[in-house]
Amino acid sequence: MAKIKTPFPELKIKVKEKQAICLFFKALIYALSIFGAICILLLLAFLGAFKQDIFMPGSYVPEKAILRIDFDDAFNETRNDSLLSEMNNVNPLSFNELLMVLEYAGIDDRVKALAARINVSNLGMAQLQELFVVIKEFRARGKKAYIFAPGFGGMSGGISEYYLATAFDEITMQPNTEAGISAIRAEVPFFRNVLDKIGITPEFFSRYEHKNAMISFTDKNLSTTFKVDMNMLIAFLNIEMVSEMLKERFPMMTSRDMLNVMDQAPYSAEGMMQRSLIDKIAFESDWIDSIEKEYDAESIDLIDYAYDVHQGKKGPEVATLIIEGNIVDGESSSGSLSSEAVVGARTVLEQLKEISDNENVKAVLVRINSPGGSYNAANEIWYALEKLKKERKIPVIVSMGNYAASGGYFIALAGDKIFADVSTITGSIGVLGGKFALEDMWKKLGVNWAAFDATETSGIDSINFKFTPKQKKAFNDSLDRVYADFTAKVAKARGIDIKKLDDLARGRVWTGSEAKKNNLVDEIGGFNQALSEAKKKAGISGRFNLTVYPKQKTLQEKIREAFMAYPSVSAQKIKSQLGLDFEELNVLKRLQYDAVMMPFIIRM
Fold first, then answer.
1. In this structure, what are the phi and psi dihedrals at residue 308, rounded to the nearest 5 degrees?
2. 328 to 106, 187, 342, 402, 453: CA distances (angstroms)
3. What is the mean pLDDT of residues 210-233?
4. Are 322 and 78 in contact, with CB atoms under 8 Å apart?
5. Residue 10: what pLDDT?
6. Residue 162 DSSP label
7. Cβ partners under 8 Å of residue 199, min gap 6
8. pLDDT at res. 298
9. How many whole angstroms separate alpha carbon 33 and alpha carbon 291?
10. DSSP string covering 257-318, please?
11. Model pLDDT for residues 546-560, shown as the tens digit of each residue
12. Closest CA to 397 of 352, 361, 366
């Protein structure tokens, strides 16, 4: 073959030289990648700091102000507090801050009216009830509240948004839009048939028949007990919501009348107007212009107003500890990377130590929005709260959010007084545990495992084998001990006879109003009512400071967190490309006692 002549000089590079060049370019690429990441983080930090400077306390509030708020924004129990959230249009206020700001707006003479917007909100039923009460209190001070909806959930699922809208003086809807105000429903998936096909055996045991947290994996269809429990829960939530709407907006209608109206949904904006379900039809720009003209006032955004409200407060402190998400051992995480929030016992214990060391703290308000989790972790947090009460001799008040069930209810037992909203889902006093056994799957794949044990129970946590009869007995004996411990602590804290408690426990889920009737909680009320009680118990009558845990991160902490997350995110991407998810494998392998409520998705 003839040698091709080229205009380029011939390169004679030895193998070692080639390796050195490849290594150099690899190093250069990695260096540039790291340098680029640093530059991006520094840019985010700079812009984040700049953004914070724009909204420093003391923002201008006009003498005649219309307070604007969008309920479609995410109002989590804890702040969206990361470096990346600084640059996104992420609402920096927590749900509890929203409540306090609205309460303050009611007594602020500069605020003449409230103009809100809603379409598809992620607020839970109990949170909506708390907002319902705050809006009514705002109106009770002689101020008007207006709300605009470009739609209520579209074709379906807008009843929760419409429920909140009925607390306002006037509801306006955009022309040619839909309102899906059908009733609440719940959906439950069942995966047992799929697991059987691939050879995974869910071996879980619970105390007792109402503790159905793993039903999606253990059962193929609805059990009678689960069906009855869910029907009762959904019926109560619908009735409670309908009764509030009737009382506030439709006093001449019956519950049956309103349910019939909901059964005909969805409606067009014109259809809503014909049935007097709304008051006006208009586009948003015209709607807000008319309100500003009516009051000769200027609109101010909720965030701007909130910074003005929070400036310069001094006095004794009320520490607010937020328990949001699944309860686990170890560290908490905010769930900012497309995952749910997690409450880590180790993190909470550190926060309680800081609270205990602060002599200015005169009361602790624990806000719980959790379906439960690890029994051991919940036990740790409960004990730490009890210890803080005894050592500091300060009141601990509990406020339940959308959920405070199982492990979440366990933590609430430390409260001197427990507040729950009417629709708070609580109780679920019980425990479950087990593992996913892969023995049949390995057989399907032709993999044989050999095990060498000194005792039969030494392999109890192995996912490669099913429980032996002896292991199963040992595990269930342990579950009995955990359940006995849980119920004994509930009986003591709530002053309920242990025999009577058995009727209230066994994993049963209760709404807040039912829990009040059964003495599982003390009062019906939201965060603001619990805060008032904490101040009263602590003897605080004047100015005070509310310190929220987890605390807002400093800019340096956000940068450090982002740096730590960078290699982790890269590793997660590589694992996903390879089809590996080691965290999921650890969950399968891990044998623990969980105190969690039943699984379901509520559609509102």
1. -70, -40
2. 39, 26, 7, 19, 30
3. 87
4. yes
5. 45
6. H
7. 438, 439, 440, 441, 442, 443, 444
8. 94
9. 52
10. HHHHHHHT--EEHHHHHHTTSSSEE--HHHHHHHHHHHHT-EEEEHHHHHHHHTTT--SSEE
11. 888 987 655 555 555
12. 366
H or E element at residue 106: helix 95-107
Say whether 363 sits in a helix, a strand or coil: strand
The model's pTM is: 0.81
The mean pLDDT value of the chain amounts to 82
What's the whole-number mean pLDDT along residues 91-106? 88
Relative to beta strand 298-301, strand 342-344 is unpaired
336 near 85, Cβ under 8 Å? yes
- Token pair in block for residue 455: 């005792």
pLDDT at 597 (0 to 100): 56
| H or E stretch covering 426 | strand 425-427
Cβ distance 206 to 177 under 8 Å? no
pLDDT digits (tens, 9 = 90+) for 111-156: 999 999 999 888 988 999 999 999 999 999 999 999 999 988 766 6
Do the beta carbons of residue 386 and residue 478 sit within 8 Å? no
Selected residue with higher pLDDT from 261 and 49: 261
Torsion of CA 493, 494, 498, 503, to 10 degrees: -140
Contact 265, 182 (CB under 8 A): yes
Helix segments in 400-526, DSSP class H: 407-412, 439-445, 469-494, 498-504, 512-517
* Better-predicted residue by pLDDT, 557 or 196: 196
Q: Provide the 10 A C-beta neighbour count for residue 503.
A: 10
Q: Please state which of the ranges 68-72, 217-221, 377-381 shows the lowest mean pLDDT.
A: 217-221
What is residue 590's DSSP assignment?
A: -
The DSSP code for 550 is S
